[in-house]
Amino acid sequence: MDTVRKGRRGAALPIAGALAIASAVLTAGCAAGTVSPVHPVAATSRQARATARTVPPVFAASFAPAEAGQGGDRLALLSSRTGGLLRWLTPSSDRAASEPLSVRDGWVYFVREPAGPAPGPAIWRVRATGGGPQLVQAGASDYAVSPDGRAVAYVTSTDRTVDIVVRNLATGRRNTIVLATRPDPRANNWPPEVSGLTWAGDDAHLAVQFQPTAAISTVLSFGAFTAATIRDGQTGPPPCPAATHDQCAESDPAYLAGGALSYVIRRLSGSGAVRTSLVTWRAGPSASTLLSFPGGPPPESYGMTAQGQAIWASGPSRPKGPWTVWRWSGGALVKITTLPVLGASPYFGVGAIAW
To answer: I need a labelling partner for 49 at 20 to 30 A (CA). Which of 29, 179, 202, 342 fits?
Structure first.
C-alpha cells in the first residue's frame, strides 16, 4: 500500500478548516520509544474506471489539539473502511507537530517539527504496528523513497536556498535541485512552501508542489538526477483560461502506475465559489479530468496511491461543524465517516492524510 501522494499543510488556496476525530480516540495512547537513525462525483473516463483496485486497509493522519497549548499535532493510524482509530503512533505529550508523508512497507514516514525556532524539521518513521520512532533524515521537511527503494529525495531549506536533494543509496550518486534562492534578506515570504514530493515509477523523475506565496501554487516535475534548478522543471497546461478572472492553484502531485502525473486543481471564481478536480497529465498540451470533487467545502487534506486510489477530508459546511472523510478508487465516491463537531474530542484539526 505504498503511498505516492502526501497531502500536507492544507490547501494551496487560502481555504481553512479542521478535522474532528471521533470521541472513541479519547482513551487510546502511544508509548514513546528509543530513537535510532535509519536510511532506508463519480469518475466517468475509461482510465478512471480502469484504476480501481483493492483499497489499502489503513491510512495515516495527524490531528491537532482542540485547545491551544495542549501539545503538537499527533499522528494516528485509522481504518480506510470505517475511519475508526486503530492506534496512536506518537504520544500526546509530544510538543512537536507530526504530519504523515507516506505509508510504505509497513512504515509510516512523517515530518516532525518541534515548537520554537530550533532545532528544525526532521523526517522520522514509525511502524504501522506501533513502537518507537526512528530518525530518517535530519534537517528535511519532505521525504520520498523511490519505488525500487534504491534512491531517496528530500527537501532542505536554509536562509539562502530551498533545495531538493536526491541520493542513490547504492552508488552514492547525489544531485541537488535548487528551487529558490532568497532574493533579499528582508523578504517576508521566505522560505516558499514545498511539499508533496513524489517519485515516478521509472525511478528517474520527481514531482513536487511549489508555493512561493499563499495565492500561488504549481506542480513541477523534474529529472531526479539531471535537473539543476527550478528552470528545469516541467509544468502541465495552464489550469485556467487566460481570459477568466478565476484564481487557480495546482497541488498534491502523484504519479500513477501507468506513468501519468495526477494532481488537484482548485479554481476560485470571482463570486467566491471553489471548484476542485483531479486531473492527470503527460507531456503534452492537455490534461484529462479523472474526478470532479463534490460541491461544498473542497478537500483540505488529500492522498493518492500509484493505483489511483484517493482519500481526502472535506471541511464542515458550517463553522465548527462535522468533517467528512471520503475515498475513491475509480468508481463511485465512498463516504468513510462523518466526524463530530468541535468540542466532542480533545483533537480538532488535521495536518495531513497519507496512504
So the answer is: 202
Rounded Cα distance between 102 and 29, Å, is: 22
46, containing H or E segment: helix 46-50
Comparing CA positions, the residue from 27, 63, 40, 47 lying closest to residue 124 is 40
How far apart are the C-alpha atoms of 320 and 301, rounded to whole Å? 17
Angstrom distance (rounded) from CA 306 to CA 289: 17
**Surface-to-core class of residue 133, CB atoms within 10 Å of its CB (0-12 exposed, 13-18 middle, 19+ buried):** buried
Residue 180 C-alpha cell reads as 529558490
SS3 201: coil
DSSP 258: T
Query: Which residues make beta-bridge pairs with 304?
Result: 310
Assigned C-alpha cell, 245: 478572472
Low pLDDT (below 50) residues in the chain: 1-52
Give the pLDDT of residue 132. 94
> What is the per-residue pLDDT across 269-313, written as a single tens digit (0 to 9) for each?
777 778 899 999 998 888 999 999 987 777 889 999 999 999 999
Q: Which residues touch 13 (CB under 8 Å, ≥6 apart)?
A: 215, 217, 247, 249, 266, 268, 274
In the three-class reduction of DSSP (H, G, I as helix; E, B as strand; rest coil), residue 175 is classed as strand
Cell (9 digits) for 112:
516532525
Asked if 51 and 330 count as a contact pair (C-beta separation under 8 A), the reply is: yes
Q: What is the pLDDT of residue 43?
A: 34
Residues forming a β-bridge with 177: 164
Provide the CB-side half-sphere exposure for 254 (13 A, CA).
Answer: 28
- How many CA atoms are closer than 13 Å to the CA of 171, on its beta-carbon side? 8
Domains and CATH numbers, the chain: 23-40+42-354 (2.120.10.30)
| 24 backbone dihedrals φ, ψ, rounded to 5° | -65, -15
C-alpha cell at 275: 471548484
